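Researcher: I'm preparing a figure for a lab meeting and need a structural model of a single chain. I don't have an experimental structure, so a prediction will have to do for now. The sequence is pasted below. Please return the structure as tokens so I can convert it later.
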Amino acid sequence: MIEQFLTWYNGLTGSLWGALLLFAVGVVFLIKGGDWFVDSAVGIAKRFRVPEIIIGATVVSIGTTLPEVMVSVTAAVNHNGAIAYGNAIGSIICNTALIAALTIAIRPAPVEKKTLRTPVLFFFASAVIYMLAAYIFGRFDRWLGIIMLLVFVVYMAITIYKGFKNPVEALGEGEQEAEAEEKSGSLLKDLIVLVISAALIAVGADMLEGSSVSLATMAGIPTEVVGVTIVALCTSLPELVTAVTALVKGHGALSLGNIIGANIFNLVLVSGAAVTISPFAIPEGSKLLGYNTSQLFEIPLMVVVMALMTLPALFKGKLRRWQGLTLLGIYVAFVVLQVLIALHIV
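Model: Understood. Here is the structure written out token by token.
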């Protein structure tokens, strides 16, 4: 049954009209999944008096990171765990310099510095672990993958503990007003919607990714270019849809928390799971100026864009439009350089 379905699905993506259909369905799944996910996550946050940025950095981030998790774990099972290496780095750059940048440029908002501190600290601590493997060890061994997964567990435990320890202090004015209002629905309903919407996001992302690659191939676009543009963007579409939906609904803190949480999960959950299943050496694929592109350019850029987004907010308590515009410019330059590398121009 499963083999028959996969044969039918692959045949559908191989035809023009089939790929267009899957593309449209994928967009609908992502949009509706993101809409329901934000509603249920905010509902849970208000019910338990947990600040939105905490929910965004945990539950929402796990849901929107599902495509990356599935891609990396599947690759690891097939003894191709190195895919997780580029997947994690590229997703973080896309999440920060494109998705978060768009929301910041459109509607910069104040942030709660106290609740932002822990996610930012964990991201840069996780980045240090990642850089040690990339620059010192030259490979990702199973023990390192286990450490990454332990960091993920500790982060989740601390984040949830802090959210429940000081619920009133962490709530903003708008949340306090909402808390005073009578809440409709039930916790079970919110949890069910959360699970269903996460599944819709994951399935929608898979449909959109497969159909985008198929359509691009039919149009004669080089596979390398597709990989660094369309595929990279498609795997981050759940974060984009959730961020935009949260922005439209006025939940800017949820959007920022989702991006930071998703970036942490890309380093310690996505990579950790893949490395634990199948350890791998640092890939020696593309070169820039004769050096490994990821070590010379992509890993430093990953750290720079996160610092540019989070550090000013951490000290000033507010996101500024110039941050969003600067990050967007960086992302455009990043994509252009990746295309030039793929076409062997640089």
